[in-house]
Amino acid sequence: MTSQTSSDCLFCKIVAGEIPSDRVAETERSIAFRDISPTAPVHVLVVPRRHEPTVGALAAASADDLADVFRLAAQVAELEGVAGAHRMIVNTGPGAGQTVFHAHVHVLGGATFTEGRMV
Ligand code: 5GP
Ligand code: ZN
After folding, report:
1. Residues with Cβ within 6 A of ligand 1?
2. Cys bridge to 73: 1, 8, 27, 46, which one at CB 3.0-4.6 A?
């Protein structure tokens, strides 16, 4: 059984309000807040309130929570004015650049993507 919060998890503390964040939107299941170190003019993180280490683990644990994260990410893109030009990025594992092991989606937009297509 995976616990739904993890006492030493940064994003669980942000979800709980123990660490401040610049929230842009939230639902019963998920919250969205600005990345502390943005790499694009719009850089928002969308995280489930439930603690799971990766998006894959979240999908296995709760399809409803997974769907809610992506629904909220799409709403954030609308709110931030980048609905027609944004990327949703999920890093999984240290080798892919994951540094916080609480599932999250990066919503990036507001700049030209200089690297063009990645896939
Ligand atoms: P990852 O590298 O795991 O895909 O993404 C983690 C993200 O969390 C990074 O982009 C990093 O800038 C962001 N981050 C790390 N610590 C904090 C924090 O305390 N507050 C906020 N708002 N973002 C953070
Ligand atoms: Zn957590």
Report:
1. 10, 19, 21, 33-37, 45, 91, 97-100
2. 46
pLDDT digits (tens, 9 = 90+) for 37-73: 999 999 999 999 999 999 999 999 999 999 999 999 9
Q: Quick one: which atom of ligand 1 is closest to the CA of 37?
A: 12
Active site residue 104: yes
- Measured at the CA of 110, the angle between CA 39 and CA 116, to 5 degrees, comes to 75
What pTM, to 2 d.p., does this model score?
0.96
Q: Is 23 helix (H, G, I), strand (E, B) or coil?
A: strand
- CA–centroid distance, 38 to ligand 1, in Å, is 9
- Phi/psi for 102 (5° steps) reads -135, 125
Instruction: Exactly one of 43, 102, 104, 106 is catalytic; name it.
Output: 104
